[in-house]
Write a structure and sequence with these properties.
- The protein has a domain at 222-373: 3-Layer(aba) Sandwich (Peroxisomal Thiolase, Chain A, domain 1).
- The chain contains 10 helices and 13 strands.
- It has helices spanning 20-37, 39-44, 55-62, 95-111, 135-143, 158-172, 263-284, 302-313, 326-329, 336-343; strands at residues 4-12, 16-19, 66-69, 120-124, 148-152, 177-185, 203-212, 220-230, 236-237, 260-261, 292-297, 353-360, 364-373.
- It has a 9-stranded mixed sheet with strand order 5-4-6-7-1-8-13-12-11, sandwiched between helices. A two-stranded antiparallel sheet has the order 2-3. A two-stranded antiparallel sheet has the order 9-10.
- α5 (135-143) links the parallel β4 and β5 (148-152).
């Protein structure tokens, strides 16, 4: 048996930024166009008029101030309201693979390793660009890694589930190391025309190198313990998929083909599930709240993170104990907790313990207890 360790992380951040002010201006322009085009039906009561959004509403609901996206031109066009992503030829790298490649190379550099040191690639993300071939195998090919690769999807918990899979393989000795990459093009599955969710997501890619602790060339985080849990729920759902479906109702723009969420039910049901999951994991690993120097949570909503932070620590977290990147990146699905870990972990001291935790659609919850060495 070997000891798995996180030896390097990397983050790819798109160049384009959409601020709340820009988003609100575009959304409200769309609302005005919609209400004008449907004025007669609205007056007759057969269609409900859409409401304006505001910067205050977005920040109060989420804590988000901006988001990075792969394309902002389409998002900020009130007649389009979605990213305009070019269809690439089969001879070109896919967009997800290109994003992941950047993050993976950064993780390898941080660990002082090369592709020759990697045995496996796991592409763990909420939305895959295609059904097959696996995006992970394409990333493996671009990195020129010998070994194997596969895709996995557990929505917002994909990264922590991927880390558990990689850590288990390293621990067993079946591989020396694995790259877990999380390219999230969340802007492409968000319904930007829905006031309840138009502000939630951004795009990013993260990568985590997990290898045997004995192979680390510098400071590393030992993966002390991992735990995953799922429970089926329809309260976060996206019905878009790889199957060609008939639409007998004649509606070409089905709302359920993009991100949908019953936010109130999610808040009510997910938070107790996460709190109980983490408490049980910590108890079984003999980790006390006082032992945790930092917690890196899924970046979904500031209120949710504040609640979980209080439950985990038994008090309100001090500044720096529970770092948020939500205000800058928005919700980046599985990548959120890894962004926080990558940006806010170098200052921990030898022997310090921390917790990476994700939660989301499924419902799914994943937690990883780590300890700094070096």
């Amino acid at each position: 048996m070997y000891t798995p360790a996180i030896t390097g992380t990397g983050v790819f951040t798109p160049d384009a930024v959409v601020t709340n002010a820009e988003l609100v201006e575009t959304f409200n322009a769309y609302v005005d166009l919609y209400n004008a085009e449907n004025a007669d039906a609205i007056e007759a009561g057969t269609i409900v008029a859409k409401e304006h959004s505001s910067e205050e509403f977005i920040f109060k609901a989420s804590g988000i101030e901006q988001r990075y996206v792969m394309d902002k031109t389409g998002i900020l066009d009130p007649k389009v309201m979605h990213p305009l992503l070019r269809q690439r030829s089969d001879d070109e790298p896919s967009l997800m693979a290109e994003m992941a490649l950047d993050a993976a190379n950064k993780a390898l550099k941080a660990a002082g390793k090369t592709a020759a040191d990697v045995d496996a690639v796991i592409c763990a993300a909420s939305n895959l660009e295609r059904a097959y071939p696996a995006v992970a195998i394409e990333i493996q090919d671009l990195l020129e890694i010998n070994g194997f690769a596969f895709d996995m999807n557990v929505a917002c918990s994909s990264a922590t589930f991927g880390i558990q899979a990689a850590a288990d393989m390293v621990r067993s000795g079946s591989i020396r190391s694995a790259l877990v990459v999380n390219p999230e093009i969340c802007s492409a599955h968000l319904e930007w025309r829905d006031r309840d969710c138009h502000f939630i997501f951004g795009d990013v890619a993260t990568a985590t190198l997990i290898e045997r602790a004995e192979d680390a060339t510098g400071a590393y985080f030992e993966v002390k313990s991992t735990r995953c849990a799922t429970e089926f729920s329809n309260n976060i759902r996206n019905n878009n998929g790889f199957l060609r479906r008939s639409r007998p109702d004649g509606v070409a723009d089905r709302r359920d083909m993009q991100f949908m969420q019953n936010g109130r039910k999610v808040f009510k049901e997910v938070l107790p599930m996460v709190a109980d999951h983490v408490a049980s994991h910590m108890a079984d690993t003999n980790v006390e709240a006082a032992d945790l120097k930092r917690i890196w949570l899924h970046q979904a909503n500031k209120s949710m993170n504040d609640f979980i932070g209080r439950k985990v620590l038994g008090r309100t977290p001090e500044p720096g104990e529970q770092p948020n990147v939500l205000q800058d990146y928005a919700n980046t699905s599985s990548a959120g907790s890894i962004i926080a870990f990558s940006k806010y972990s170098d200052d921990l001291q030898d022997g310090d313990t921390g917790l990476i935790c994700s939660f989301g659609a499924g419902y799914s919850v994943g937690s990883v207890i780590v300890q700094k060495h070096g």
